[in-house]
Write a structure and sequence with these properties.
The chain is mainly alpha-helical and about 325 residues long. The protein has one domain. It is built from 13 helices and no strands.
Length: about 325
């Protein structure tokens, strides 16, 4: 029910946005992006994909004992495509990644689930820390009335998360009920134990911990740098710290599971946040569209290209094998 209400409010917000925006002016802003800036943004997104694949590969090597960068890059490409057609939380993408890891690295489903869990933990931990810092900076840079509203909303959200975690930690009966009621519960418990063990292992190994922290922050910091490139292309300077805040708050809004790939929720949040700095709505939408194109649609296209390339190579290999047999 709550999701339906959010969806209705979101659609109404998009209608208001559409009625108050000059689409012709928006298109002019989008067309004004230079080819050199587009190439920089494209290369930066490919660099982001490579870094994410390196992160995945290091975790796969930690759990399975061996890694393969090419396979890992393809695995994440499959996940990117599924992420693009599933709403906010992107659970479908993680399931497809776990399935690919299981089938291509000769490990169990439980181990592949541990790998996915570890990567998400590291990624989310990096993002949450940057997000909290972004909120603190952003509320200091805007009107006090809006600041109080934002702090109040986030205070309720973080309090709810804290209470939920406390309930789960204290109430072990939940796990006992799962074990008795579901046959797969023992496998789930084993997976959680393995996950906990690897978290402790990473935490205890200074090299692993430092490398994962650096990778996590490096991946996330590339997104506001892309935003900086776009703002520079429009001859605008809001200051890099504020761009970091706007980028991460928009990504947090995109996690609300309303539409596939969080299309619309991210753009709306970014337009709304840019409006606090008195930027025209048509220009704000152009900025959010360009940013989203390179970080979402372009990434999808690159992922599909590499998936197609993998299929073509496998086809050629099968053809060679058939020739040898005949």
């Amino acid at each position: 029910m709550a999701k339906k209400i959010l969806l209705v409010l979101f659609i109404l917000g998009l209608l208001v946005l559409g009625l108050n925006m000059d689409f012709q002016m928006t298109m002019e802003y989008i067309k004004s992006i230079r080819l050199s800036d587009a190439l920089i943004l494209g290369l930066m997104q490919i660099m982001t994909m490579i870094l994410i694949a390196i992160q995945w590969n290091s975790i796969i090597r930690l759990v399975s004992g061996e890694g393969n960068f090419a396979k890992t890059f393809i695995m994440n490409s499959y996940g990117n495509v599924v992420d693009g057609i599933t709403p906010g939380a992107k659970v479908g993408g993680e399931i497809s990644r776990a399935y690919y890891i299981k089938n291509n690295f000769n490990i169990t489903y439980e181990s592949s689930a541990v790998i996915v869990g570890l990567q998400k933990t590291i990624s989310i931990a990096s993002f949450v820390l940057l997000y909290v810092l972004s909120i603190l900076y952003f509320v200091m840079a805007i009107d006090s009335y809006i600041r109080n509203k934002i702090l109040f909303i986030h205070g309720i959200i973080f309090l709810g998360i804290f209470l939920f975690v406390c309930i789960l930690r204290k109430n072990e009966k939940i796990l006992d009920i799962l074990v008795k009621k579901f046959k797969c519960a023992n496998n789930i418990l084993k997976t959680l134990e393995d996950y906990k063990g690897y978290i402790v292992q990473i935490w205890g190994n200074k090299y692993d911990l430092l490398s994962q922290i650096i990778l996590g922050f490096l991946i996330w910091i590339l997104y506001p740098i892309k935003m900086y490139v776009i703002m520079r292309a429009f001859n605008m300077d809001l200051g890099f710290p504020l761009l970091i805040s706007i980028t991460y708050i928009s990504y947090m809004a995109a996690m609300i599971p309303l539409l596939p790939g969080s299309v619309g929720s991210f753009e709306s949040a970014m337009v709304y946040l840019l409006s606090f700095k008195n930027i025209l709505m048509s220009k704000s939408f152009a900025i959010s569209f360009i940013f989203r194109f390179f970080t979402f649609w372009f990434e999808m296209l690159v992922s599909l290209l590499f998936i197609g390339l993998e299929k073509f190579i496998l086809f050629l290999r099968r053809k060679d094998i058939d020739k040898i047999k005949t």
